[in-house]
Automatic annotation (TrEMBL):
PANTHER family: METALLOPHOSPHATASE BINDING DOMAIN PROTEIN, PHOD-LIKE PHOSPHATASE METALLOPHOSPHATASE DOMAIN-CONTAINING PROTEIN. It comes from Streptomyces parvus. Residues 82-117 are annotated as: Disordered. Residues 89-117 have a biased composition (Low complexity). Residues 1-93 form the DUF7800 domain. This is Alkaline phosphatase family protein. InterPro entries: DUF7800.
Length: 134
C-alpha cells in the first residue's frame, strides 16, 4: 500500500480565477493521490515517476475565490494527511478574490493597505532535521 513520503506542499494558486490550486506530494510507490477540501473542492492525479521517486501534482478545482479552506490528502481511500494524531492546525488553501475585467482582485497585501506592486515569494519544505518538539 502506498504512503505519503513528502508533502503536501501548496505549489500554486491561480491568481486570475481564484478557483484552482496545485498541491505537490511524493508517495512511496505508484498510486492515485486525491486532495479534498472542506468546502467541497477537490482533485485527483496519478503519480509520475522520476529516478524511482513517485510524485503527484494534484490540481484542486472548485475553490471559492477570496476564501480559506482546509484540505486533506488521500491515497486510495485512506487519509494520509493530516496525520491522525496531529496537534497542528489544519493545512489550508487561501485563494485571492476573483479577477474583474479591470484586472486581478485585491490581494492580501493590498487589502491590508500595503502596495501589491512588488514581487512576493514564499517557499516551504516538508522535511525537518529533527522531529517537531524534539
Amino acid at each position: 500500500m502506498a504512503g505519503l513520503r513528502l508533502g503536501p506542499l501548496l505549489r500554486y494558486v491561480d491568481w486570475e480565477s481564484g478557483s484552482t490550486a496545485t498541491v505537490w506530494v511524493e508517495a512511496s510507490r505508484p498510486c492515485t493521490v486525491e486532495v479534498r477540501c472542506a468546502d467541497g473542492a477537490s482533485g485527483a492525479s496519478p503519480t509520475f515517476s522520476v529516478a524511482g521517486h513517485h510524485y503527484a501534482l494534484v490540481v484542486v478545482e472548485g475553490l471559492t475565490p477570496g476564501s480559506t479552506t482546509a484540505y486533506e490528502v488521500l491515497i486510495g481511500s485512506r487519509r494520509v494527511w493530516p496525520p491522525e494524531d496531529t496537534r497542528l492546525p489544519p493545512s489550508t488553501i487561501t485563494t485571492p478574490p476573483a479577477a474583474t475585467p479591470a484586472g486581478p482582485g485585491k490581494g492580501a497585501a493590498e487589502s491590508a493597505g500595503a502596495s501589491s506592486d512588488g514581487v512576493r515569494i514564499s517557499f516551504g519544505s516538508c522535511r525537518w532535521a529533527a522531529a517537531p518538539g524534539g
